[in-house]
Specification:
Strand content: 25-35%
Largest sheet: 7 strands, mixed
CATH class of the largest domain: Alpha Beta
Shape: globular
Order of helices and strands: EEEHEEEEHEEEHHEHEHEEHEHEHEHE
Number of strands: 18
Helix content: 25-40%
Mean pLDDT: 96
Structural class: alpha/beta
CATH superfamily of the largest domain: Medium-chain alcohol dehydrogenases, catalytic domain
Number of domains: 2
Low-confidence stretches: none
Radius of gyration: 20 Å
Distance between the termini: 14 Å
C-alpha cells in the first residue's frame, strides 16, 4: 500500500509499505481522510523522541471498515475513532477518564498511523458515523474534541458563566479555530484571538467573527480576560497568557510547542490564577464532538484544505514554512 512515512527530521516521503495484518478484536480501515496535526509537525521537526523515523504518522482519521475480526463493527461501517489505545481496566479508564489511561498506546506513535491507504486499529476505539456526515468532516473529530474537552474543563473552573467572560484564544491553528468557534456557539460576546501568521489571522477573523490580534503590532489587554486558552504552548504564549489574565481568572494550557519555560508564579499565587492542563479527550468527548460536527456547531468547516496523500510532503513543507492559510490540512489517500 501507499503510505506517507516520516523518514528523518524535516522529511516525509511517499513509500510502499505492506498492508496491515488483522489481529483479534481489530479491524482494518480504508482511510478516507486524515488530518495533519501539530504533534505530527512536532515529530516532523525531530522534536518528539517517541516518534522515530520510519513511522507512518497520522491519527486524525475517518475510514471504512474493509476487514474485521470483531463483533463490534462489520465491513462497510464508516467510522472515526480514538487514536489512544486504552486498556479499559486501570483506575482512569474505570472513571471514564481514559485519556489518562496508565497503559495507553497511540496510533501514529507506538503503531502505524493513518497517513496510508489502510490502517489497523482495535474495534473498541472506533465511533460509528451518522449517515449524514461525510468523511472529511468526520476526520476533524479528533482536533475538535481536544477543544471540546479543554473548554469543558475550563467552564468547570470559572466562577461566572462563560457567556459573561472575556476570553482570549492564543493560536489560530485547528485547536484555536475550533475553540473559538465553540466559544461563539456558547454565546461568548467578548472573544479575542492572537495569531502570528497573517494568512491564518484572516481565516480566523472570517470564520469566527472575533477580534484577531497581530502580536507583532499590538499587545492584548493586560489583566483583561477571565479565561485565556493557550493553544500553542510556547514560552512566549505562556507569558502572554499570564500577562492577559485577570485576577481570579483561568488559564487553560492546551498546546505543547515547548515543553518547559518559566511562568509567573508570583501572579499565579497573589492573583489566585487557576492554571489548568488538558490532555486530548475522552471517548465520551469524541462521541459528543461527532454530534456537534453533524449538527453544524462548528459551522460548515469550509476553511479546511483538502489534498491527495501524494501531496503530503508538500503539505508538511507548506506548514513548516508558514505558507498554509488553513488551520487544518486533510490528506485523502484515495485521491
Amino acid at each position: 500500500m501507499k503510505a506517507l512515512v516520516y523518514t528523518q527530521p524535516n522529511e516525509v516521503r511517499i513509500q510502499q509499505h505492506p498492508e496491515p495484518t488483522l489481529d483479534a478484536d481489530e479491524v482494518i480501515l480504508k482511510i478516507d481522510a486524515v488530518g495533519i496535526c501539530g504533534s505530527d509537525m512536532h515529530a516532523y521537526h525531530g522534536h518528539d523522541p517517541r516518534r522515530k523515523p520510519g513511522l507512518i504518522l497520522g491519527h486524525e482519521f475517518a475510514g471504512t471498515v474493509v476487514q474485521s475480526r470483531s463483533s463490534l463493527f462489520g465491513t462497510g461501517a464508516r467510522v472515526t475513532g480514538n487514536p489512544l489505545i486504552t486498556c479499559g481496566r486501570c483506575d482512569y479508564c474505570q472513571q471514564g477518564r481514559n485519556n489518562l489511561c496508565a497503559n495507553r498506546t497511540m496510533v501514529g506513535m507506538t503503531r502505524p498511523g493513518a497517513f496510508a491507504e489502510y490502517m489497523s486499529i482495535p474495534a473498541s476505539s472506533l465511533i460509528a458515523l451518522p449517515e449524514t456526515m461525510d468523511s472529511d468532516t468526520a476526520a476533524l473529530t479528533e482536533p475538535a474534541a481536544t477543544a471540546v474537552h479543554a473548554l469543558d474543563l475550563s467552564v468547570r473552573a470559572l466562577r461566572r458563566p462563560i457567556q459573561e467572560c472575556r476570553v482570549l484564544v492564543v493560536g489560530g491553528g485547528a485547536i484555536g479555530m475550533f475553540a473559538a468557534l465553540l466559544l461563539k456557539h456558547f454565546g461568548v460576546l467578548e472573544l479575542d484571538a492572537i495569531e502570528v501568521n497573517p494568512l491564518r489571522r484572516q481565516a480566523l477573523a472570517r470564520e469566527t467573527r472575533c477580534r484577531v490580534i497581530d502580536p507583532a503590532a499590538e499587545r492584548c489587554g493586560e489583566n483583561h480576560y477571565e479565561l485565556v486558552v493557550d493553544c500553542v504552548g510556547a514560552a512566549i504564549t505562556r507569558s502572554t497568557a499570564f500577562q492577559a489574565i485577570r485576577p481570579g481568572g483561568v488559564i487553560m494550557h492546551v498546546g505543547l510547542q515547548e515543553w518547559a519555560s518559566e511562568i509567573d508564579m508570583r501572579k499565579l499565587t497573589l492573583a489566585e490564577i487557576t492554571l489548568l492542563g488538558t490532555y486530548t479527550y475522552t471517548t465520551f468527548d469524541l462521541q459528543n464532538t461527532v454530534r456537534y460536527l453533524d449538527r453544524g456547531v462548528f459551522g460548515d468547516c469550509n476553511w479546511v484544505d483538502r489534498r491527495p496523500l501524494d501531496e503530503g510532503p508538500a503539505a508538511f513543507a507548506d506548514l513548516h514554512h508558514g505558507r498554509a492559510a488553513s488551520a487544518k490540512i486533510l490528506l485523502k489517500p484515495g485521491h
